[in-house]
Every structure is written in structure tokens, then in C-alpha cells.
Amino acid sequence: METMTLSEQEIVNALCYFHAKFKHVQPSDVEVELMYDDLGGFTAEAYVNGQMDFYNTVNFITAIRLYLDEQLNRDSLSARIVLDLHDDEGIIANIEW
Question: pLDDT, tens digit, for every residue of 46-77?
Fold first, then answer.
């Protein structure tokens, strides 16, 4: 079984790429803030031109799948993606194929 871990920065990149694709802007135009709480789980706010959009855990996974497919050229459909809050590294994604 192959594994991969995406760092917090790579998750931010994935969310920026995902948000930019649907807003028709460049990923560098997107600002993302990642959050975690016990009730809401993993969430993020993405900002473009002063407009904020909210992302939940399902959106995180969807963004990571798109990033795997289009940026890392990996098969995302067969991937098992688990988000984790790490003490030192922040929010990470553990991926298994």
C-alpha cells in the first residue's frame, strides 16, 4: 500500500487551486485560512477580492482530490484521504492507495 502525507501548506495550495478554478482567478489571488474545532471539524475560509466562501470537511476532501488529479497527476478516486490535526505540523492529510 502506498502512502503520502500532504502538509498544511499543500492543503492550503489545494484549496487555493480549487477555489481559483471555480472563481476563474489565479490561485495566487486566493487567501485561505484553515481552522479546526471539535464541533465543526475541519473548515476553511477562502477570500478573493474581499468575498469570503466557507469550506467544510467534505470540501477539503474534494479540493484535495482535484489537486491530486490535476497537480500531482495521481488517481484520486482510489485514494483514501484522512485529515488530521497534528500538534507540530498543523492540519495534514494522510493519503493511502
Answer: 999 999 999 999 999 999 999 999 999 999 99
Buried b (16+ CB within 10 A) or exposed e, 58-73: ebbbbbbbbbbeeeee
Question: 18 in a domain, yes or no?
Answer: yes
Say if 93 falls within a structural domain: no
Domain count of the fold of the chain = 1
Summarize pLDDT for 13-48 with one digit per residue, the tens: 999 999 999 999 999 999 999 999 999 899 999 999
Residue 3 falls inside a structural domain: no
* Rounded CA separation 57/12 (Å): 13
Q: Is residue 66 part of a domain?
A: yes
The model's pTM: 0.94
Closest CA to 43 of 85, 6, 87: 85
Domain residues for the domain of 63 are: 8-74
**Cα 10 from Cα 89, distance rounded (Å):** 12
